[in-house]
Amino acid sequence: MQSMPRTTDVLIVGGGVIGCAIAYYLCRAGAEVIVLDQGEIGAQASSAAAGLLAPLGSLTGPGPFADLLLASWSLLPALVSELEAVSGVHIEYEQTGALRVVRNPRNIANLKRRMQAWEPLGLRIDWLAGDEARSREPLLAPDVRAAVYAPQEAQVRAPRLVKALAQAATMRGARLYGQQEITSVQRHAGRITGVATAQGETFACEHLVIAAGAWARRCGEWLDISIPITPQRGQILSLLQPTVPLRHMIFGEAIYLAPRLDNTITIGATKEEVGFDRHITAGGISGLLSAAIRLAPALADCSIEAMWTGLRPRSPDQQPILGKAPGWENVTLATGHGSVGIMLSAITGQTIAELVTTNEVPEIIRAFGVERFASEHYDA
């Protein structure tokens, strides 16, 4: 027998960093919120993410995406402090700074062009010759020819950020339910009025938010709309630090190294179009290790501490989908954050909460509506 429906102002589908951030900001605004996830809260891409708050690598210069990413990056330090105070969770925010390095002399000109494109964005950046880069980071290989140093770039522990958001939202009144697989939606006059789950639960709502990450396309099927999101597998591993520890985040060609407070180094990440396959592969891990050792040869003697995978939600243009769902009065989309979901969590939470409570789309996310894909066909 089906239970009586639980009711709420806003029902959020997806309990990762994006869903929990939206829940937290909505609760701050006084809304009643329920979050549902088909697995455990925060157990998908968000818990697997490296948590790097290093915007430059995702940007090619000014524009709407740069505005969005840098706005969120600017919000995060204060949000982290607030969440730690409310939840008691230590998020491990560290401003370690980052070095983007090149080993091949033919790539120096390209790195200089990238630096010129980054200069208008407002972050401090410095050009370092190879010897200067090794002086700042002694573990770098002898053949590193040049680097761009960004001292303001930082990192968090992604699982701790999600846990803090979830606990802080709960403490402000949100109700979070894991292991709730949605099987159907209730509709009335252009509105979604509730959902039913395979576990026999029903949830009634005034507004529905889709923040389901790599699974957002399936949510689109309930709504008879296309949400062009595909999963992208990322494999990551961690090593124990060598005797002389790595001190900065290092970005090479398709590789990053990130030192952690627990005396480990996170190394990532692959980008693989393999559907929902979350297996760790020998080829993926060996490729990461080989690239890491070329950047920092001392890592060859380090012990492997852990290996894991996650599924990023990838949109066709590799930018998020944020805004109202076409054809529905009370449905909002917040997905497709790819590899920058942790970094975009603050601005997504803030703006989607504003959209839901005011019914107005904030200017900073107007370029990211799903309608930008309407003229194209994207295969699953």
How are the elements arranged and paired?
Elements (H helix, E strand, L loop, with lengths): L5 E8 L3 H12 L4 E4 L8 H4 L3 E2 L10 H24 L10 E5 L5 H11 L7 E4 H7 L9 E5 L3 E2 L2 H14 L3 E3 L4 E7 L2 E7 L4 E9 L5 H8 L6 E11 L8 E4 L2 E5 L4 E5 L13 H14 L8 E11 L6 E4 L6 E5 L5 H18 L22
Would you write up a description of this structure?
The chain is an alpha/beta fold. It has three domains: 6-69 and 159-228 and 316-373, FAD/NAD(P)-binding domain (3-Layer(bba) Sandwich), CATH 3.50.50; 98-145, no CATH class; 230-314, 2-Layer Sandwich (D-Amino Acid Oxidase, Chain A, domain 2). Helices cover 29% and strands 27% of the residues. The chain has nine helices and 18 strands. It has helices spanning 17-28, 45-48, 64-87, 108-118, 130-136, 158-171, 216-223, 282-295, 341-358, and strands at residues 6-13, 33-36, 52-53, 98-102, 126-129, 146-150, 154-155, 175-177, 182-188, 191-197, 202-210, 230-240, 249-252, 255-259, 264-268, 304-314, 321-324, 331-335. Strands 1, 2, 8, 9, 10, 11, 17 and 18 form an eight-stranded mixed β-sheet that branches. The longest helix is centred in the first third of the chain and has 24 residues, at 64-87. The protein is elongated, with a radius of gyration of 21 Å. The mean pLDDT is 95.
